[in-house]
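Lecture 7, part 2: worked example. A protein chain together with NDP.
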Amino acid sequence: MTAHIIDGKQLAATIREDVAQRVKALAADGLQPGLAVVLVGEDPASQVYVRNKAAACEKAGLASQVIRLDAGISQETLLATVDQLNNDPGVHGILVQLPLPAHMDSARVIEAISPAKDVDGFHISNAGLLMTGTPLVKPCTPYGIMKMLDAQGVSLWGAEAVIVGASNIVGKPMAMLMLAEGATVTLCNSKTRDLAAHTQRADVLVVATGRRGMIDGTMIKPGATVIDVGINRGDDGRLYGDVDFGSARTVAGAITPVPGGVGPMTIAMLLVNTVEAAERQRAS
Ligand code: NDP
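Predicted complex, written out as structure tokens:
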């Protein structure tokens, strides 16, 4: 079997086009959705992510501003910046790029963002709403994965969904979204005994660990849908996923590539979340 390759780039382009249309309609009404991205320090990967997010915003007609702060600033200065953005009516979405420098408490900074402007969906009140089945803002990466599964016609109702990686930004919200669609969800972490016994059961397997190639074809159920979230830079400068693509694609029914799978969808869903935040703020 050779797996169908799920083209995240193409689906993301369609979603971005839809966002651009919604932005046009809002502009006719005198509203331009605005996203503020706060970047603290010089982390090279973060700089690339922030640049890509800002470029995507501009292309879709959203107003975007990147606030670059020195790695040595105090947490109080960062909190004051967030507070200013919370009170700026032209800013509908706020994103603080993670990771923050070690002297800062990320949880405290995220809690300082107004939940209405928290377009990453990481604020504790948005996490709580997701947990209780009434999400307001869905975290971009798992939200994008749900859109991909839907576009592929993958039904989660009664399906075995296994997620490897249990972070607050990917694995845990992914579990909640899949559970809400009727999947039987298994959430694995670094302490999981016999990981393969779990992954081999999965009708839908999502891998988000940051460990290059840790899932190979022997760990995949024939015909499964495999979603690779991992982004790992090899010594050759290229990007690799957490799934060993070569062996996995001979077993899986469908698989996302890295790059060109989940990554573009994450950015597309950030645009969706920002437009929806603007629409909600106008209505309130
Ligand atoms: P974290 O480091 O926050 O979490 C990693 C998770 O993987 C933890 O739950 C950890 O377990 C688990 N884990 C680590 N090793 C193993 C193992 N051997 N077996 C099972 N579980 C393991 O990572 P993130 O969730 O932030 O990111 C994961 C990957 O996804 C990274 O490569 C990141 O770059 C990428 N990413 C990609 C995005 C995209 O848009 N494509 C967006 C966000 C992230 P434990 O809890 O026990 O420590």
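Residues 141, 164-167, 169-171, 188-192, 195, 208-211, 214, 229-232, 262-263, 266 surround NDP (CB under 6 Å). Residues 260 and 267 are 12 Å apart (CA to CA). Keep this in mind for problem set question 3.
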